[in-house]
What we know:
Elements: H1 2-35, H2 38-60, E1 65-67, E2 72-74, H3 83-94, H4 98-111, E3 119-121, H5 122-140, H6 143-156, E4 170-172, E5 178-179, E6 182-183, H7 185-189, H8 192-202, H9 205-220, E7 232-233, E8 243-244, H10 251-263, H11 267-283, E9 285-294, E10 297-306, E11 308-310, E12 316-318, E13 320-322, H12 328-335, H13 338-355, E14 361-363, E15 368-371, H14 379-391, H15 395-411, E16 412-413, E17 416-417, H16 435-448, E18 459-461, E19 467-469
Antiparallel strand pairs: 1-2, 3-4, 4-5, 6-7, 8-11, 9-10, 11-12, 13-14, 14-15, 16-17, 18-19
Helix pairs in contact: 2-15, 2-16, 3-4, 3-5, 3-16, 5-6, 5-8, 6-8, 8-9, 10-11, 10-12, 12-13, 12-14, 13-14, 14-15, 14-16
Amino acid sequence: MKSRTQHLQKHTRRLAALVLVFVTCAQVAVSQQQAVNRSKLALQVRTEFLHAWNGYKKFAWGHDDLKPLSKAYHDWYSEPLLMTPVDALDTMILMGLKNEADRTREYIAGNLSFDKDLSVQNFEITIRLLGGLLSSYQLTGDKRLLKLAEDLGNRLLPVFESPTGLPYRYVNLKTGKVRGEVTNPAEAGTLLIEFGTLSRLTHRPVFFEKAKRALVEIYNRHSPIGLVVTWINVETGQWTDKDSHISGAIDSYYEYLLKCAILFDDQDCKRMWSESIAAINTYLADEVSRQLFSLLGRMPYKELWYGHADMNTGKRTATTYGALDAFLPAVLALSGDVARAQRLQESSYKMWMKNGIEPEEFDYQKNEIVHAGYPLRPEIVESTYYLYHYTKNPEYLLKGTTMWNDFVKYCRTDEGYAALKSVVTKEKSDSMQSFLFAETFKYFYLLFAPPRTLDFDRVIFNTEAHPIRRKWL
Length: 473
């Protein structure tokens, strides 16, 4: 009897401790929620956007990017293509910066020309410039932007003239000469939102048809277990490696399978997404056992990550996950798999919190940084925005606030924002790519801004965060 009484007392104490933990956590959460002033944070993001934009205008106007430490400019090629103005324009519009947006739009319309003898990277030009022009056209109705987009689309079309229909990586904007026969699923398969939108707006099917074929040709070459890998030859259609993952060089291929299914109501894309995500969840998802130590003792739990595997066997080949991989919670949430998205977002946030800002690559099994750089990437913020939209859980506002404060603390400079060479030392790098304006500032702003700023359910974001309307006018 005494033993039974002691047993009951022990469990009563544990239950009381558990209740105390939950009550304390709830009180802390309420306190923190009250501290999240969304309108104030949205204004801060807007202010910091202007800080970086003014630095660009002061030292790099008319060029592609600002070098924030040396206060100089950087162009991708021998002549500028106005990467930052085009990438930044729709963010200015969403932030209500009308005068700045109008001046920038006039500058683009009057000065941007693609009649240049430049061999450009098709993928980057498509997601940044073609996507940016199309989004800003839809937001403003300025037909000059659509004319520029169509001219650019015409100049990019030669990339698809390979024996397989898979696009070459580079094309000369003036001559149409192509090069770069070895590409990857991301560069070959992240084109249909932009080319398909151009097709709908210009009533020219060729843009949609070429880009969709490229997406299908990647999918058709998946392994027997449903995976694709990093590198493929566009002339032979043969893979040149066996490394499957969701990171850079593959990531946005999967993103576009789902988004194109939604944007274009495309049943082929819907089927390819469904079959692909099943393989990803089977062979790339990785649950890692951990121990949580609390007042109740050890509590086992499992973290969800996505690693690398052999394309044919599914055997785990690496336990690395990084800043680019952090796009997946957003895509999972968009697909309806919110529960899995939330678990993976917890892992992404853990990676961020280890050093107060996320590294480019992280070994989740060893809990060690593999590549320590941070080039101002937006993906974890994007996923935070998506998950807050779908769950309305204030936890995501709290975490977004933490990330915003870290971002400003470690990356702000006198004239802009700088990438980090290392998230450990916080040493800065002389780089401020245009996606800072297109994506990172935009997703932070949309997380905190009123929902009326942008109707989430009426747009699809391309992989550069340029919103495209779901309905065609």
